[in-house]
Amino acid sequence: MSFWGWEGKDKERPEYQGQAGQGSAREPKVIECSGCGAKNLVAHSVGKCEFCGLLLNYEVEAESAYAHILPAGFYTVGIDIPAGTCNVTAVSGTGYVSSSGAISEAFGLEDGDVCSFDGLKLRRNTCLEVSGALTIELVFLSIDEGFSGRTYDMSGAIDLSTGTYDAGTDFEAGIYNIAAVSGSGHLYCREADVSELFGVPNDEAHEIRNVNFPKGAEFSVAGKLTIKLIPEEFQGPTGSDAKTAAPQTQSSGREEEDFSNATDVHTLSTGFYTAGIDIPVGKCDVTAISGTGYVCSSGIGESFGIGNSDVSSFKGLKLWKSACLEVSGALTIQLSYRSIDEGFSGRTYDMSGAITLPAGNYKAGRLFGKRFKVGVYTIVAVSGSGYLSCDDPDLGGSFGFDDGDVREIKNVNFPKGAKLSLSGDLTIKMIPEVTG
Fold it and tell me: Which of 3, 116, 318, 345 has the fewest CB atoms within 10 Å distance of its CB?
């Protein structure tokens, strides 16, 4: 994307075909692509860029060269927009507008939102932030200084799906435009000040401009979402604002790695897996092998599986020592490790000490009556089908031999007083861990 200062308003990019005059009826519309910066003639309110294929999401355009249409993003005065005094108007959606104490408002077209702000003073090197599914229009009353603009490199764009990524390792640190490619989910990066519901639905943000990812920033993509990161073409130091000034991009220092043939691979079915005991400590990619269910840990919480609405892979999951990875439902996943910080000790289970429990209510404690010993067990269906539930740990689901039932749960820790309930004609076997 390229912006021009006021003094260059009549210039055109070479690929721009046609021009809409200032006094025209504004049909077709001239819309600038946020990905490659090309200008397109669009006969409808939405369309695709003829040069890079990105969706053109703007439903309106500026009525004069004094006006600027801004979707969600970070705009540095003197780089992305002029310095001066302007009026701000909500064009579509709802979100938040803020800038260095000059404005801080819930903004948009919904009831309760501020829909306009007059006389906003934008000073050089300050940042105007627009968040949410909001698009605003700035109409300048006076311009004190033009702006240099940015150029983005569509050829260097990368696609990211669900996962956790480190700037400087998984992608180069620097400034990016983020565009939704498919699906819906959530973006989060503390260091870049990004936390947005994001995707292709109209009520979600589908683009964030000028996002600065410093080296070491952790960027999370959650939900069934694929995005495109489009890097800025760095052209030298600009400004001093740490959030928005373009830093020297940092190379990861290595070629893109292929983990499809990784030797340290672990296949996990339903159960509880402790890093350092059941699985290694380190960083891995998670892939659904069969079924559907839920995967949960400190760095992931996703409906996972091979169904159309499920997340089927997660990149860069960090498993710290003693962290628990929970796999629930009739789901099997595969962990492919990128790096291992520490191995794992493993567990041994005592088949000779296994107990068989028919349908009924049981309590963890001393082994008499309808009780069983406190400890860690693997639970296996023996016959029938029914519902298995427990208050601690939180278990609940169909278990047994009917279609869709879970047939085994690994590494279940029952503390003293935990209540286990079995219904239907279900019979299970509980195999205790060897301790001592």
Answer: 345
* CA angle, residues 18, 20, 24, in degrees to nearest 5: 145
Q: How far apart are CA 40 and CA 60, in angstroms?
A: 13
Q: Which domain holds residue 214?
A: 154-231
120, 81 Cβ separation under 8 angstroms: no
pLDDT higher for 7 or 354? 354
The count of domains in the chain is: 4
Question: Considering all CA atoms of the chain, what is the largest pairwise distance in Å, rounded to the nearest integer?
Answer: 90
Nearest to 210 by CA among 65, 70, 393: 70
Say if residue 380 is in the same domain as residue 411. Answer: yes
Which residues make beta-bridge pairs with 331? 291
Range 107-115 contact pairs with CB under 8 angstroms and sequence separation of 24 or more = 107/134, 107/136, 108/132, 108/134, 114/90, 115/89, 115/90
Q: Indicate the pTM of the whole model.
A: 0.73
pLDDT in tens, 64-98: 458 899 999 999 999 999 999 999 999 999 999 99
- Collapse the DSSP code of 154 into the 3-class scheme (helix H, G, I; strand E, B; otherwise coil) and give the result: helix
259 in a domain, yes or no? no
What value does the mean pLDDT of the chain take?
83
Class of residue 361 by CB neighbours under 10 A (exposed 0-12, middle 13-18, buried 19+) = exposed
108 plus 171 within the same structural domain: no
Say which DSSP state 176 is in: E
Q: Residue 156 in 3-state DSSP?
A: helix
Tell me if residue 353 falls in helix, strand or coil: helix
How many helices, marked H, and strands, marked E, lie in the chain?
0, 31
Q: How many CA atoms lie within 13 A of 337 on its CB side?
A: 16
- DSSP code, position 433: B
Query: 90 and 196: one domain?
Result: no
254 falls within a domain: no
Is the predicted pLDDT of residue 62 greater than 60, yes or no? no
C-alpha to C-alpha distance for 358 and 361, rounded to whole angstroms: 9
